[in-house]
Amino acid sequence: TMPKEPAVLRQNILDTTAAILACGIDPKKCFLFRQSLVPEHAELAWILGCLTNVPRLLRLPQWKMKRASQNNEGTVGLLTYPVLQAADILLYKSTRVPVGEDQVLHLELAQDIAQHFNKKYGEFFPVPKAILSEL
Predict the structure, then answer these.
(1) Rounded to the nearest 5°, which phi and psi values hold at 43?
(2) Exposed e or buried b for every residue in 90-121, given b needs 16+ CB within 10 A?
(3) Which sequence ranges form a coiled-coil region, renumbered to this chain (predicted)?
(4) CA 20 to 30 Å from 60, out of 66, 79, 83, 93?
């Protein structure tokens, strides 16, 4: 949600990929890709954003905390980031999502968006459930 220097962003992508592989993710058993190369993430985020009300996003604690750290000048990207997260989850019709405690409210938003979409347009998205870890 914050602008990055292109060279730093490219290096961050490589470093993150290396870290994922170092953790033991086997590319022969899973798909590993750059989300930014899949336009459907942003496209679905736009559609879901049109179904999400602003007051709901303004109540999310992450928005309040990060906005305060940005001198109360939070960006639209920061505000709508949870909708992009919902699109990331729903695009692949995920049924279970590993999340930390700090992301439970964002997953609940994804659940609500899925239910709202399904009610309006018919059953399409599974409602994802959280996989919480004690670690």
Answers:
(1) -65, -45
(2) bbeeeeebebeeebeebbebbbebbeebeeee
(3) none
(4) 93
Name residues whose C-beta falls within 8 Å of residue 67's C-beta, 6 or more positions apart in sequence.
Answer: 73, 74, 78
pLDDT for 43: 98
Q: Which residues of 34-46 are buried (b: 16+ CB within 10 A; e: fewer)?
A: eeeeeeebeebbe
Structure tokens given for 57: 């996003």
Both 58 and 95 in one domain: the answer is: yes
The total number of structural domains in the chain stands at 2
CATH number, domain with residue 101: 3.40.50.620
Same domain for 69 and 118, yes or no, is yes
Residue span of the structural domain in which 79 resides: 35-132
